[in-house]
Design brief:
The complex is a heterodimer of chains A (110) and B (120).
Chain A: E1 9-12, E2 18-23, E3 35-40, E4 47-50, E5 64-69, E6 72-77, E7 86-93, E8 99-101, E9 105-109
Parallel strand pairs in A: 1-9
Antiparallel strand pairs in A: 2-6, 3-4, 3-7, 5-6, 7-8, 7-9
Chain B: E1 3-6, E2 10-12, E3 18-25, E4 34-39, E5 45-51, E6 58-60, E7 68-73, E8 78-83, E9 92-99, E10 107-110, E11 114-118
Parallel strand pairs in B: 2-11
Antiparallel strand pairs in B: 1-3, 3-8, 4-5, 4-9, 5-6, 7-8, 9-10, 9-11
Classes of the chains: A mainly beta (110), B mainly beta (120).
Amino acid sequence: QSALTQPASVSGSPGQSITISCTGTRSDVGRYNLVSWYQHHPGKAPKLMIYEGIKRPSGVSNRFSGSKSGNTASLTISGLQAEDEADYYCCSFAGNMLYVFGTGTKVTVL
Amino acid sequence: QVQLVQSGAEVKKPGASVKVSCKASGYTFSRHGISWVRQAPGQGLEWMGWISAYNGDTKSAQKFQGRLTMTTDTSTTTAYMELRSLRSDDTAVYYCTIMAVTGVGSFDPWGQGTLVSVSS
């Protein structure tokens, strides 16, 4: 199973919007609406930001939103803030009780 | 609240085994599976496998098959991950995380992580 493909880095100024892509195949991202996104600050535990492709857990800012088109899922962060600077990972169900993470994206707030 | 607390850091020699524990609390243990995820230095998150806390069924990523054993102890609501024949590239922070509490296919929350260092 190959990791899902994410851009290595994305940056934006405070207040701007950025989008992180997550490209898989028709066997994982394309087949299931089960992509989740995680925010990971170094030295801390990852935090769930989006699940089932588009849903936000309670307590997560509505500045975070998810979407999907074909084999590519996306995470959009609107109104970028300094505290959003972190690594972000997508994860997809891949069938047969298997999961696969993305390669990770470092978000920098300029 | 739902919480996972993992065992402390380990230092192992190549060829040895390591067993990491993950104590769960704040929910009905048997209702949700536990996944194990690792992050090697400078690398991304890697899903290793999962175990059903209901019946002990397991599924591992292909690269860990034959080296990875996951178990649970329902009496103490603790999950365990044992990795054998350790190599230097197994040096990583290992996390346990609960499956499908928030939604289908989600991992939430996560344990604090356990650093496993493999060095001769």
